[in-house]
Amino acid sequence: MMTKKISITKSAAESFLFCIIFLLVLFANSTHAQTVCSGTAGILPNGVAYVNGVQVLSTSTGSVQNVGFTGFPLVCSPLSLGAGQGMAVGVTGSWSINLIFDKPVNDLMVLISGADTSSGAENFIFNSNIGTVSISSDNYCGMVIAGNQIITTAIGGGIYKIHSPISYTQLTMSGGGGSDGSNIGICSASINVLGVHDIAGMKDDIVDIFPTPTKDLITISSRENLKSYNIFDASGKMVLSSFLKGNKKEIDLSILKPGNYIITIETETKTINEKIIKQ
Q: Which residues form the signal peptide (predicted)?
């Protein structure tokens, strides 16, 4: 009888210990897995923003409007963020937003809210100048991730991480719009200057631009054939643009006012974004 009692007590203790371990694991997963964001960056449809030491040049086409929020609305938990800036996209049709960073970034957190399927599924497509990106999230609802895009399946939204194997300096977000559109924003804390190790991978670029600062002329030299260039001013307006041939080109900047500009150069295999200074 005593042996049986000890056996039962031991079994109960083991079961209790298992329950404790299970609850601890469950608590740890629920505590650390959920993606959160304390606020969104003040990025406009067209303009320049400075976030955590990174200059962000934004340009847009199609149905994109500026929307300011005292709390960025989400349909998933949490219900809203404390503060932030967002853009209404797809209200009247297709849309595209191009973000250019003067320093390499990665793992940007994109917030989406108000998406639905009332007149067809909305989609959100992401591409970087480095190549294909991957999307992940543990805080979303009413949407599915399919490769480099997010597609609505019901009323939904969420917080999504946009990751690339190599850090990027340009991110393009686009979609077909519809269903009265939705809201999109970028988590401020996710826009960060990368460490020395991360930036080291960007040093061996195929394109060289010199001199900068410059008074009149800059030269673009590339180990690949050049295809085109675009130059944007501090407001996000395109001020110079041209198709290119060969692997070296001299550009006259004499018509530009002194200031900081972003030049986007397309080669056969990639797009490079650099900051240039006109004196």
A: 1-33
